Amino acid sequence: MASFQLLLSAGDIELNPGPDSDSSSQQKNKQQRTSRSFSRICTECQKTVRKNQKRFVCDVCKDFIHASCLGVAYTNNLNSSQPQCWTCHKCVLSKLPFYGHDILEIISVNSLTSDNDNDTHLNILSKHVQHLKIMHINTRSMVSTFDHLCLMIERYAFDIITMSETWLKENNLLLQHVTIPGYVHAFNNRDKIRGGGVGIYIKESIKFKRRQDLKKRYPTMEHLWIEISGRNRYSKLLLGTIYRSDAILPYTTWLEYFNDLLSDLSVQWDGMLAVTGD
Fold first, then answer.
1. Could you tell me which residues belong to the region Disordered (predicted)?
2. Containing domain of residue 210, as a range?
């Protein structure tokens, strides 16, 4: 026992003898294996993404996800030998001006008259003057909340305001009442059933066209789309606002239509896509 301790202290033998190796190299290889293993885990189902599976890889953070977990409807056309490029929702959100902040709530009339220096939302907007500022609001009757909406727009000067539950009808006098100076509006109103309806206000300085073809393709859904032109695919925008109501479509049927709509847009539209609503 004494000789064993002497040899050990001299460094001639080890408790677990084996082939010599560089410990730093082993640690590096272990980290690389761990990194490769982690990057091949589907961020949705947490299962391994194999080479023979149809898959997507985020072009920003390099995370993987199964095509089936992403809910892509046209998986038969995908090549399983190579991952498809895509941007995950986390990376998309991280580029938005309000990422990490509380969502803008509907502010009371009293708070609209507060000092500018103490208005957190106004301070956030003032830091992103070059960004396109879009707000969505559930108005629950444009007629009853119109004055409040005008005060909010006057203070925050959003470029585009999308709305659901406008509760409007195809009445010229009524539509004139909800006109806001400096903005162009577009509405999709219900004909017979009370409530519902969607609408958009767009600043007059923004050139756009209404995409009636998308409404005609899915006529039973309550939705409205506009296309804002740009210099390239990174500056043109297709913006839609949608309202779901059981009075129009059952939940499962609506989800099927919505999935089909997004699948069509992902194939046919090569610019930025934004969807608002509730």
1. 12-35
2. 120-277
